[in-house]
Write a structure and sequence with these properties.
Shape: flat
Low-confidence stretches: 1-8
Order of helices and strands: HHHHHHHHHHHHH
Radius of gyration: 29 Å
Helix content: over 70%
Oligomer: single chain
Distance between the termini: 53 Å
Mean pLDDT: 87
Number of helices: 13
Number of strands: 0
Structural class: mainly alpha
Strand content: under 5%
């Protein structure tokens, strides 16, 4: 059952000295883990059926426990206690990975299955207009326009400020001001989205007297986005070797130009990824939009005036209606939102690869 490499016994040579002992240890074959996984899955299903367990989650937990115990016992008997502990840790990591992936895959499958019922060209190119929420029809065009404008404005506000703040902290910040900025960035990282919405509501709408608009929602989203941009950009800038900075400065290049031409191009891939992660975070926010944008059933292309719609708010409002037609529209809008976030990540990967510094000599 195992590819056991036998250990040579020390046999006395003619002169009386013992023969050298091989350092090779017995090892389980590579196909052992998948076979054990299949056996554990079969036993878990069998145990669940015989025991009358109705939940497939219970079957999976039984199978996972059998896989872990079986792997450790078999490795301990063949490879020794040290290698068995290593395999136990590896098994636990795989189980944790599956526990994290299975709900995600299940959610994506459920969203795709339900959202595809009404997702078509008409749904993407029409708004709700005067259509009652309980009736079938309508679309999300107005929500797509609102989401693109609100997220775009938030990115235009937060990305430059976050990038400049990170450059200051890494390249220039050495005094008390840098400590204060770092402290407030850490505080902003844990701010709930509703708090950011209430702050903009009290300042922009209640004190200054402006009405609800997409721009008001963008300011709240920028508050949530900024600390993520600062932290991710800061870590990427710290990864740039100091030798590159020193070489540029040794040639007489000013520090600002070194940052612009050497440091930023070297870390542009990580910076772009951090910005896209922050965009993905704010794209699904509902609370600030509900407070500041209010939502609208018609198309509003002006983000600086009047109520506007967004995809996460559209999903919330349609689900709140409670009719079969509104449920279908909510699932379809959620599917579009997921596709939108995935597309942003793919674009970020492409930009990062395109702008990454090329290795090797030419």
């Amino acid at each position: 059952m195992s590819d056991v490499i036998t250990e040579r016994r020390p046999v006395a040579e003619p002169g009386g000295a013992p023969a050298p002992v091989s350092l090779k240890q017995p090892r389980l074959p590579r196909w052992t883990p998948p076979v054990l996984a299949l056996v554990a899955a079969g036993l878990g299903i069998g145990t669940g059926v015989v025991g009358g367990l109705q939940s497939t989650i219970q079957w999976g937990l039984i199978a996972a426990l059998l896989f872990i115990v079986g792997t450790y016992a078999l490795a301990a008997g063949v490879e020794g206690a040290r290698q068995a502990k290593d395999r136990l840790a590896t098994s636990l990591v795989w189980i944790a990975f599956l526990l994290a992936v299975v709900p995600l895959v299940s959610l994506l499958w459920e969203t795709a299955a339900r959202g595809s019922k009404v997702l078509d060209g008409y749904f993407l190119s029409h708004s709700m207009g005067t259509l009652p929420d309980a009736m079938a029809g309508g679309g999300i065009y107005h929500a797509i326009i609102g989401t693109l404008e609100q997220v775009g404005l938030a990115t235009l506000i937060a990305a430059p400020l976050g990038l400049l703040t990170a450059i200051y902290l890494v390249e220039y910040g050495k005094g008390k001001l840098s400590k204060v900025v770092t402290f407030f960035v850490d505080v902003m990282t844990g701010i709930p989205s509703i708090v950011a919405g209430l702050f903009v509501l009290s300042l922009w709408i209640l004190i200054l007297g402006f009405g609800p608009s997409g721009f008001a929602g963008s300011m709240a989203l920028a508050i949530l986005m900024m600390p993520v941009v600062v932290r991710s950009t800061e870590e990427m800038l710290k990864l740039v070797p100091n030798e590159l900075r020193e070489a540029s400065l040794a040639l007489g290049v000013p520090k600002w130009r070194t940052i612009l031409k050497v440091v930023l191009p070297t870390s542009i891939g990580g910076i772009t990824t951090g910005v896209m992660l922050s965009i993905a975070r704010i794209t699904g926010e509902t609370a600030p939009v509900l407070l500041l944008v209010w939502g609208a059933k018609t198309i509003n292309n002006n983000p600086f005036e009047g109520a506007q719609q967004s995809l996460p708010l559209y999903v919330f409002q349609q689900w709140q209606q409670g009719s079969e037609a509104s449920y279908d529209r909510a699932w379809a809008a959620a599917l579009v939102l997921i596709i939108f976030v995935m597309a942003l990540n793919l674009v970020a990967r492409g930009i990062a690869r395109w702008k990454a510094p090329r290795g090797g000599r030419r």
